[in-house]
Amino acid sequence: MLDLINLKNLTLPELKELAASINEPASKADQLFSHLYRPTSKFCQMHNISRKFLSKLNKISFITEMLLHKREISDDGTIKYAFKLADDNIIESVLIPSNGRNTLCISAQAGCAMGCKFCLTSTIGLKRNLQSSEIVGQVLFVIKEVKTIHQHINNIVFMGMGEPLANYENTLKALEILQDEKGLGFSDRKITISTCGITPKLMELAKISNVNLAISLHAIDEAMRTELMPINKKYPLKDLLANCRELSAEQGRQILIEYILLKGINDSEADAACLAKQLKGFNCKINLIPYNETPDLPYKQSSPETTQKFMDILCKSGHLTIIRHSRGNDISAACGQLAGQLKL
Ligand code: SF4
C-alpha cells in the first residue's frame, strides 16, 4: 500500500514536484504551500484551491498539527510547551518574552545523543530526530497562540532539545520552510542555530545559509571540554575555534559564543583570561550563562562575584560580553533544563 505523504514535510519545490506528479500545475502548489502555514491549513478550509486538486491530494497525503501535551507559565512570563508526537515522544519549546519582544526556543530532536554532562536533555539519550514538520510545527503552534494577544515571534533559536546539526537534513528543510516568503517568512537575522560543535556541518551550513550561528563552548581547555562535552573528542576545540575564526575572517560573520559557568570547574580567572586570548581578533559576542542547578546533576552555579569577575576580564580584553539571566527556572524551562519534568 502507498505510504501517505505528510505535506508539511515538503519544501515548496518538493510540493511543486508532487503537484507535477499528479498532473497539476506548479501554481497550485504555491497556493497550497501558503495555506499550510496559515490558520486555514485543513483541506476543507482551502476555499480558493480547486476541488479536483484537493481530492487528488486527499488520496495521497495528509496534514499534521502539533498536539499540545502541557503548557506551563513561569512567574517571569516564560511559557514552556510540551508537545506529544505521533509516536508518544515528547518535545519541548520555550517562549521567552522580553521587553516587548518574543524569542521562541525550539527543539530539533527528541532527546539528544551528545551527552553534555551539565544538560538534563542528555540524561534521556536520543529518542529520534524530528521531522521538519515537527520542527516548524512548534513555531506554527506558538505563532497562533501569540497572535491571539496581538503579538508575534521576533526570534527563533534552535537551543531546545537536541543538536540541530546532528539532524542536519531536517534542520535545513525546516529552515527553508521557516524562511520561505510563502511559508513563514523569517529572515536570516531572526533565526539562530546553536551547535555543540559538529564542525564539518557547521562549515557546510555557513556556506549555504546566513542564519546566526551560536557555539556552545563551555570550556577553553581541551581536556576539560572533552570531559564536559564528549563531542570534543571527535571535533576538538582547537579545530572548532580555527573554523569559527575562518568564518569570521572570510564572511565577516559574528559568532555567538555560549559559556555556562560551572562553579569550580570552568569559572576561574585563568579560564577567563584563556578564553579572552583564544577569542582575540575574532568577531564574536559572548553570552555567559549562570548554570541552572538541578538535583539530578552535580554541578553548581558560580557565585555572582565570580561571574562578574569573569565578565570583567572578557570585557577588558575588548570582547562584547553579556550575562544571560536565567528565565523560566521555576518551570524547568531554563537553559539545560529541558526534559527535566518529563518521562520520555
Ligand atoms: S547541551 Fe545541547 S547538545 Fe549538549 S546534550 Fe544538551 S541538548 Fe544535547
Question: What's the total count of β strands?
Answer: 14
Low-pLDDT runs: none
SS content category: alpha/beta
Helix content: 25-40%
In DSSP terms (H or I, runs of 4 or more residues), the helix count works out at 11
- Ligand species: iron/sulfur cluster
Helix and strand string, N-terminal first? EHHHEEEEEEEHEHEHEHHHEHEHE
Q: What is the fourth-level CATH superfamily of the largest domain? A: Aldolase class I
CATH fold name of the largest domain? TIM Barrel
Q: How confident is the prediction overall: mean pLDDT?
A: 93
**Spatial gap, N to C terminus:** 31 Å
Major sheet, described briefly? Answer: 10 strands, mixed
CATH architecture descriptor name of the largest domain: Alpha-Beta Barrel
* Coarse morphology: elongated
Brief descriptors of the model:
single chain; alpha/beta; 344 residues; 2 domains; two-stranded parallel sheet; 34% helix; DNA polymerase, domain 1; 11 helices
Describe the structure.
It is built from 11 helices and 14 strands. The protein has helices spanning 12-21, 26-36, 51-60, 132-147, 168-179, 199-208, 222-228, 231-234, 237-251, 269-278, 304-316, and strands at 5-6, 61-62, 67-73, 79-84, 90-98, 101-105, 109-111, 126-129, 155-158, 191-195, 212-216, 255-261, 284-290, 320-323. Strands 3-4-5-6-9-10-11-12-13-14 form a 10-stranded mixed sheet, with helices on one face. It has a two-stranded parallel ribbon with strand order 1-2. Residues 112, 114, 116, 119, 121-122, 161-163, 196, 216 line the site of iron/sulfur cluster.
